[in-house]
Amino acid sequence: MILADEPVASLDPKTARLVMQYLRDTSRALGITVVCNLHQVDFAREFGDRIVGLAHGRLVYDGDAGGLDEAALQRIYPATEEGGASSVAVPVALHYANGLGG
Questions:
Q1: Domain spans of the chain?
Q2: DSSP 8-state class, residue 4
Q3: What class has domain 2-95?
Q4: Structure pTM?
Q5: Closest Cα to residue 4, out of 25, 33, 46, 42?
Q6: In this structure, which of 20, 37, 62, 73 has its CB flanked by the most CB atoms within 10 Å?
Q7: How far apart are CA 98 and CA 41, in angstroms?
Q8: 3-state DSSP call for residue 18?
């Protein structure tokens, strides 16, 4: 298992995409799971087989990337009382399925 805590947080978009591709390719080539904590929802959708979304320490989404719709994002990133988006970033975790029950 590879645990990747915000591996692309400070990278430019091109390099970030390469890192995510390397993680996915390594996962599939070695048949291992990658759990990757991200704030970039687009990368989660593109590279994740399974997405786990947390808000305020609670599980609010657990499903495939295709099911991560606007309603799920609102649960992950709830609005503040003033109506704006929460200023606290909440991570989205990726789980690359390895075909071995992982």
A1: 2-95
A2: E
A3: alpha beta
A4: 0.72
A5: 33
A6: 20
A7: 21
A8: helix
The DSSP bridge partners found for residue 2 are 34
97 band by pLDDT with thresholds 50, 70 and 90: low
Asked if residue 20 has pLDDT above 90, the reply is: yes
Structure token pair of residue 50: 């399974």
Report the 3 state secondary structure along 33-93.
CEEEEECCHHHHHHHCCEEEEEECCEEEEEEEHHHCCHHHHHHHCCECCCCCECCCCCCEE
**Of residues 79 and 21, more confidently modeled:** 21
Is the separation of the CB atoms in 9 and 39 below 8 Å? yes
